[in-house]
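Backbone shapes recur. Consider a single case.
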Amino acid sequence: MDLGLALDSATSEKYFRIASISIACYDYIITLPAEWRFYRSQPSISRISLACVLFILIRYVSALVMILSNYGYFATSFTQQTCSHYYLATPAFKVMQSMVSQAILGVRTFNISRRDRKIGIALLLLYLIAISVEWFTNIFHRIPVVIDVNCTPVDSGKKLSAWLYYLAVMLYDLVMLTVSTTHLLRYNPLSSRVSRLVRVLIYDGVGYFIVLSAANLLNLILYHTSNAETQLAGASLGYAVTWIMSQRILINIREMSEPDPRRIENVVVARPTNSSGRKNVVSGLRSHFESKSNSKNSRSPIDPGFPPTSPRNGHPDDVELNIRVCVERSVKVDFGAEQSSSWDKPTMR
């Protein structure tokens, strides 16, 4: 009976690990274009945004922890001595991955809360407490165990402490979700684009919490068992889920902050032959949009004389992770070859 349970545990862990590796590799490949767009959007190598730094960290720290974890499991050359030098590598990088993921949520929540100083201090203290608990629970009472010549770190304490790691992560995620969603629901978007961005932020936060909490809850239950192989059956799946959901938050924010090419209007004007003509064209364009705006009795969200009425006063453009969203109309001007007799009335297409 015990032999059958051991075989079932080993088989389950192997399936979990293979599935997590497959999912992570697939997601890595399909997000390569998004990664390239992330790099191209940076002003220069020396001026990389915070969002890009966090994206790089979550992407490659996660890849490293998955490599270390699965190498220790699938390798067939470990001895008790070599395992004693290797077994803490996976728990250490596991906490590093969690630190980056929680930093993404923390910065996201701080910006959504309009960078309130008191909330920022509270989030920082919560972050420091959470990572301290995570380091302690992942290193304390861990011993190297060689099972079928592969290396596995196991919680050996009479009172298991490793499962507390997943409890701390779930509580931190819950607080971040509560604070961010509360502030997002108070927003009064001034345009459909900002309204769509707010909805994406809410859905991302809720989706992140549900998916990651499910993986953490599975690991929390598995760590309550005394079998060494059963304890780590869902660990690799948790790494993959944390990786995918964290980087998806950053990718969605970056893509939502880009200007929508479908909103671009084409304006065809004749090419002016002198500077006065250019001035008339500019004046015509300006008067066209001003009259159009006045006819609708609307206030431009980028007009400094009319601050937004939403709770984002003070940082009207700061929505998320140091990404600035500016709501405006894009105009594409095509200069025709022929001249026009009237400069004040450009033709709209």
Observations:
- The radius of gyration is 27 Å.
